[in-house]
Structure formats: structure tokens, C-alpha cells
Amino acid sequence: MLSLSRGEDSLVLAPEHGGTIVGFRPEHALPRAAAPKSADVAAFSVRIKRIEFLGAEWLAYGSADGQFGNVNVLCRLRPETVGKVKAGEVQEFVVARHNLRFFSKATGMRAGPSPI
Asked: What angle do CA 56, 60, 64 make, to 5 degrees?
């Protein structure tokens, strides 16, 4: 089981089993529809609660339900994806596996990749 929480400037997936934290930056999360079909990705569902325009960027706030529990997430939307993400909907987001970062839960130090 995985849970998601927002770090200072990153979106973090923290496996509840094992000792590895998996993280990625909010701009690396894409709606499935905007990701290349052949990409090697990790996927998760997000119930979008609200979309916010900050002048220079769009943010989507939501919760990752199902396999990740029910935790808050933040994704920075690219301009071409803004119209594809709507508040109140559940959307699948993906992150390219090469953008995932792994850390030891015990020490917080960088660790080698783990399957997720």
C-alpha cells in the first residue's frame, strides 16, 4: 500500500511496507491522456478537488484514492493538459519511471530504485 503526501517542493509516494520512500516533482505528473503511449510509467488515480491558476502556472489539488489510500496530492499542470483535468473528476496520472526518486525511510538519504 502506498500513501502520497506533499513535501516542500515535491510530491512524495511513501510505501507503508518496506523502508523506501518514492518521490517525484509535481511537474512530472501528467494526466494519462497527455503521456506518450509507449512510456514506461508509474500510474495512480487522483480525485481532483480544485484547479488553481497562479498567473504563471496551473495547479491541480486532489486526493489519491484506492491503492494509495486517501491522501492529498498536488500536480503542476502543463498548459496543454489544463483543459483535460476537471474538478470533481477522477483522473489517472502517470510519472515516467526515470523521474522517480528513492530514499531510505529510516535515514532520508537517497537509495537505489525499488519496484512500485
From this structure: 155
> pLDDT tens, 8-51?
444 555 544 467 777 778 888 888 888 888 778 888 888 999 99
Provide CB contacts within 8 A for 37, sequence distance 6+.
none
Query: Is the Cβ–Cβ distance between 46 and 62 less than 8 Å?
Result: yes
Phi and psi at residue 25, to the nearest 5°: -80, 145
Q: For the chain, which residues make up each domain, given as ranges?
A: 2-104
The CATH code belonging to domain 2-104 is: 2.40.50.140
- pLDDT tens digits along 55-85: 889 999 988 766 555 667 888 898 888 888 9
Q: Are 44 and 4 in contact (CB under 8 A)?
A: yes
Contact 66, 43 (CB under 8 A): no
Full-model pTM: 0.74
